[in-house]
Give the backbone structure.
Amino acid sequence: MIKVGIVGGTGYTGVELLRILAGHPEVRLHAITSRKEAGMAVADLFPSLRKRVQLKFSTPEEAPLTECDVVFFATPNGVAMQQAPALLQAGVRVIDLAADFRIADVALWEKWYGMQHACPELVAQAVYGLPEVNRDRIRSARLVANPGCYPTAVQLGFLPLVEAGVVDLAHLVADAKSGVSGAGRKAETHLLFSEASENFKAYGVQGHRHHPEIVQGLAAASGQPVGLTFVPHLTPMVRGIHATLYARLTREADVQALFEQRYSEEAFVDVLPAGSHPDTRSVRGANLCRIAVHRPQGGDTLVILSVIDNLVKGASGQAVQNMNIMFGLPETLGLAHIPLSP
């Protein structure tokens, strides 16, 4: 059994980790931290976990994290980089669901995240945890940087095209929408029901901190610099990301076949029949990315539709997928959840 610790067990990604790991046949939950809720039973805060999770929250200082085989950080940006070095020194493997280790250029990370990195020497050791790209490196990783939700949907949608070199890499466009849970479990005016309901808006048009993460991944896949216009939107739903992606073909290709071949062995990427329109409900609660390929009017502009649940394949489910790879388990173990409907 894998002894698991979770730092930051009270946010949306934290409770999603608990939901998934509580049903994982090879996991024993060993420690869950929360400064605010220390001493409270997990099931008292999250009644959905009654009779499934018996632990109480403890402070990070009191939690037996060094006894764990792996520790997940489901914390705000800037927390994992403070605590990860000591855990790695103790032989614990670390999966960070925040952004502390995602961007290889530390100066660029500091620019976008507005803080000084506490352990820049570890950034080069971190493996970017997109299994469909880095599976071999994840197997031996000590520190995994779990991808962001927008970057997961966008990269999986563009990857077959940029890897094959069949599109104009200088002018990619990602028009992406997210449910409000993507902003985290916190009290902010724009996330209140009265503000977010019956509303739809773009944000971060001048620049969003997931932009350099997406560009970094696509450039690595293509071997060339990538130009990307990325515009995120907030939608009045709890879960889900819908990314509508645009790229211009530079040479003729059977794009449907390209996607089907690229993801034919991937358990968590579903390429739909040509002309399909995936919706976020079709992946809700599941560790799954569904993709559809369109070529309107047979022209040279491709439209790729990519949908995920931002809390599962976009966060906690992908983190457990990475854990399975790191510990030599079947990649789908504990992740065979059928999407919820309705």
About this structure: The chain has a mean pLDDT of 95.
